Structure formats: structure tokens, C-alpha cells
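hi! just following up on the protien thing from before. the input was this:
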Amino acid sequence: MRHFKISRLRLIAAALPGILPGFLAVAAVTACALLAARVFGGSSILWGLFIGMALHGLSRRDRLERGIAFSADIPLQIGTGLLGLQITAEQLSLLSAPMLLLIVSGVFLTILFGTLLGKALRWPAVEGAIAGAAVAVCGASAAMAVKLVIPSKACRPESFVAVIIVVMALSVISMVVYPFAVTALGFPGKEGGLILGATIHNISQVVGAGAVLGQEPMEVATMTKMLRVALLVPVMLGFSIVFRDRSQVRSGTGITGILSHLPAFLYVFVLLAALNMSGVIPPAIKAPLSTLSSVCVLAAVVAMGIRTNLVNLKLAGMKPIIIMTAATIFLFVWMAAGTALLA
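and the predicted 3d structure came back as:
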């Protein structure tokens, strides 16, 4: 055992010089994205993605290639696992059983809607499903998370980057439009906050939209949004089952076979969510780890941007815009109609 540990440490030490230059390049661009978002406003994810794509030439440098590839994978796994810290027991106690069912069904029906519409438009099923998951769960973070549990070549890079760009744009639009829409539909209070939390893509936009309606709707919207984040676990599990490659299907069947192929970060997510709901994680630890989660996801987006050729982005065409806009409308109509029936 001791020999094994020493050998493993030597392997890591041997790989470090090849990874470090590219990793430091990604870290520098990540810092620039955070600074740009602070100085000029806007989303650090979009800043990171656009700056990264502008620096696509870095990915063609042999000295940086390994570190950039590493940064597109490992930080994302760390950041996704740490998302479990955002799940609290309050979210489950806030909503009635029918409302919970409405939210959960909305998430999975939206993913199915994106998949079927993608197939109708002759887009690969997995890409339509990723687009649907980005709309249904938590925007770019959900798209990045589900990509981790599917075969690496299942989704084209240009399509994936298009999904991130479109979902960020739709989230901003929905933040502006939805507060007025729910008010016009007669849901200005808690129900309005619930609809906002169940339909807007990114957490920051949910808070902003909820604040337009007032303090209580904002709190309900935030709690509802966190419940959707919790659904990232069954969503990733579903993706890992439906979109497994054939070798995985042959190597394991049943629950044991499925669990054996789930990545470690998914177990970390569940463990941290359970610990957080039990109240054993102090705020002094939770706050910096939540910040680390955001930074890790941003670093992975930056690395993915660097590895994406901007010229190839046009290959995605209008399909991601059509699919995700339609899925966004579908989710809003589902939640509004369901809330009206349950009110």
C-alpha cells in the first residue's frame, strides 16, 4: 500500500510540469473574467467564455494544451460537487407536495421537450437534452454538469458553447420580462416568486427578478431555484443512464452497474447536500467553499472557451436558439398553468 501511494504521488509529480503552464493560463483568464464582471458588469461566465474564445490560439500551443484540457475537466468536477452546499432543508419544507410535483415534473418535461424538439430539427438527441437541461435546471452550470456524465465526444464543442451563450441571454431576458408577466397573470406574491424561481435559468437572475416583486417573493423564488439545483442529481443520473456508451452498458447492469459508473463528484454533491440540510456545516466554511465552486465552474468555462474555435460556432446555426427559446416558453407556461390550478 505504501509503495502504491508513493508511485501515485510520483505520477502526479511527473504530470505536474506538463499541466501547470496551461492551468496557470486558464487561471489568469479566469481572474480577468472576474475583474471584467466587477468593473463593467454582466456575467463572469460570459466574460470568461468570450475572452477564452478570443484566446483560442493558446490551445494550439503544445506547452499549454494539457493544462487547458485539465482545467476544462477537474475544476468543473470540483465546482459541481460543491454545488451541494446550496441545498437546504428549508427548500423542502417551503412547498406543498403538489407544488413540489409541479416543479419536478416541469424540470424533466422541459428536458424531454428539448430532446424531442431537437430531434424534430435534426439535432442530436444528446445536444437537445443538454439544451433542455440548461433551461430546466440552472443554466450554464447544469449544462456543464451533465456534460461530465456523458461520453466526451457525444456533444459537439460548437453546439455546447452555443447552448451556454443562448441560455445566458435567455436568463437575462426572462429576468426582465417575467416579473411583469407574472404580475399581469395575477401572481404578484408568493405564487409569483415561485414561478420565477421555477423558470428563470440562473440564480442571480432569479434573485433580481424576485426583488422586483418584493422581499417575500424574492425569498420564495430563491428557495424554489435552489430546489431546482437539487434536481441536478437525478438529472445527471438520468443522463448517465440514457447516454452511456456501449462499453459501459456491457460492463454493468442494474443498480450496481449504474452506480459504478457515476463520477465521484456526484457522490460529493449528495454528501454535501445531506450535511448542509442537517445543519452541521458552519457558515464560515460554507461561504468560501460556495465561492470556490463558482470560481471552479468559471475556470472550466474559460478552458472550454479557449478550446473552442469561434469560426466553428456558426455551425450550430439557429437550432439552439429555437430549441431553448421554445423550451423556456414551455417551462413558463407549465409553471403558470400549474400554479393557477393549485392556487
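The CA atoms of residues 30 and 299 lie 6 Å apart.
Residues 88-279+312-342 form one domain.
cheers
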